[in-house]
Design goal:
- By secondary structure, the chain is α/β, with parallel strands linked by helices.
- The chain has helices at residues 8-22, 46-50, 62-74, 93-100, 103-106, 136-140, 153-165, 217-229, 248-258, 273-284, 309-312, 316-327; strands at 4-7, 26-30, 55-57, 78-82, 116-121, 146-149, 170-175, 182-185, 201-204, 209-213, 235-239, 242-244, 261-268, 294-298.
- It starts with a strand and ends with a helix.
Length: 329
Amino acid sequence: MMAETMTLGKALNHGLRRSLEDDSKVVIMGEDVGKLGGVFRITDGLQKDFGEDRVMDTPLAESGIIGTAIGLAIRGYRPVCEMQFDGFVFPAYDQIVSQVSKMFYRSLGNVRLPIVIRIPFGGGIGAVEHHSESPEAMFSHVPGLKVVTAANPADGYSMIRQSIISDDPIIFFEPKRRYWEKGEVDLDADLATAFPLHSARVARAGTDATVIAYGPMVRTSLDAATAAAEDGRELEVIDLRSLSPLDMETVYASVRKTGRAVVVHEAPGNLGMGAEIAARITEECFYSLEAPVLRVTGYDIPYPAARVEEDYLPDLDRVLDSVDRSFGW
């Protein structure tokens, strides 16, 4: 079958459908995921085709959703939980950190919780308070959790399937501003030969500087690389894809080649993913660096009102400005 062109949202829908078909123990649960098909329609049509026992509308109680998923996972199911928006996950944070992340260790490896927690994250859609957050560092910091994010439709389709068959609990961040962006997806792709779930990918090859991004900022970084090429600079763009564990070998190889690194993410800079990545690059690639590792991030303020969010979000100009600063050293 030839690859089909579809949006990231549709690719995720196909991935969830395929997972439901492949394993009768996979169940989907969350607020409005059934009849409505989810706020972003990611689960559209799944309850109609698989029934209310497989695709379950839950009460508006995130802690209850995760608590129920823990029980289901202990009994052999593979729950896929949707947090309707990023800012709604915090009532469930206690369950995730205190139970989901620790059960395998607490049971001396005898109990696994193969739970996938889907979280639409980031800004750029003009949403109201609590509907545009970037809490990925909070989860990546927690031992026992794995954290991934897909930046394009092809990765969305394969990564959601890979996450569901994993025996580890996985936080699956979906860049909501990219739900409607299109790309080619091979729906017949074999997971056995798919790109590894926890590996970073070189999204664009280059020689002059490395731009490291994930989720919604991959597209922004690729656009910056296109613009930089007009001025004769070839930027290499790394899509991390996995935030915990981090595939730093791919990053190190790029930085050793280019000698410069800029890390880009929407979340605030203070104690963000960029700080960890910059520290590791400095530790491992010190003698290859021609300049300090720079960061382009959201500001250290609560996420602003929709009318000014474009002033808050890192954009092409801010990425290019940091690249210029790197070359200024």
